[in-house]
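Hello support,

Our group uses your service weekly, and this is the first time we've seen a run hang past the timeout. The protein is Phospholipase. I'm not sure whether the cause is the sequence or the server load. Input pasted verbatim:
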Amino acid sequence: MDDLNPRETKGLCLLSLDGGGVRGLSTLCILKCLMDKLNRGRQKAGLTTVRPCEVFNLIGGTSTGGLIAIMLGRLEMDVDECIAVYTTLMEAVFAEKKNRSRVNMWLNLQPRFDTKKLKAAIEGVLESRGIAKDAPFNDGASRSCRVMVCATSSDLADTVRLRSYDVERAGVPVPATICEAALATSAATSFFDAVEIDGRRFVDGALGANNPVREVAAEAKHIWCYEDGADLMSKVKCFVSIGTGHPGKKPINNKLFGFASETLVRLATDTEQEATLFAEDWRVAYEEKRYFRFNVQHGLQDVGLEEYTQRGTILTATDSYLKEQAQDTGVTECFANLMVRECMYLVRAEEYA
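Update from on-call engineer: The timeout came from a worker crash unrelated to the input. Re-ran successfully.
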């Protein structure tokens, strides 16, 4: 233990969550598998169970991944709570369409779902936890887990990071409430209205960073490496990136709404390309089993962003993915990594698997 690299017990743990509509349930199931394994290990080591907010120093997400990040980090839910709330939210929001037609009389795309319902559902979650509907996302409190969600500025079309914490030299912060941050990161184009915060309009963060892993890394570097100029990778103990399912290859048949369709396909493709490129950049951490990417490869490509009734399909595909030998090994290796940091001593994964 005396020779143990300080990074092994004090290094940063980062969590990045992709966007993907109702398929965010797959993200949560993967995280649940990891957290369940970690907590079984902790219990066998005589330790109490922990929530994601007690494991990860920074949780970042885009779109529904951002919504999940807020629930796990800012609202400090455990994964089971988050799954229950997320499932209820998706049904409440997507059960009824606001507009049957995708365009208005001026041939402009109009939101298919009611933003007011999404807002009411989020406010209901806050009230159920004794949190005011207008509670600020960054309330100035010191928390071990920071939360960052991505939104897209509709004025400049660039990615903006909404934060639950203060950070120096990061420009003028956006004074969002918890609800506004959740709405801004989730306002998917053609699904919901844009969200206005302090005079600025925001839409779904997926337009700029559907896979926010690079945004999470950049944010972590700004927080923990700015002063000493250190390389972020040298400070990271465990970096986990979770997707919402491989998009597969699907033809686009709808000519009238080709642009919108092409945008969704491009987002899904860019997500995978980003995952590949980031893994190459972080090859050393990947080979040292400090960077992990989990994403269901088959079975979710036909589940639409709003198809909440496909819950069974999502659960089945994710369960099959986790049972694959390679993924089971990956989860075990990720668990072993976290156990070293959590328990402060080396743990053989097979003892607690």
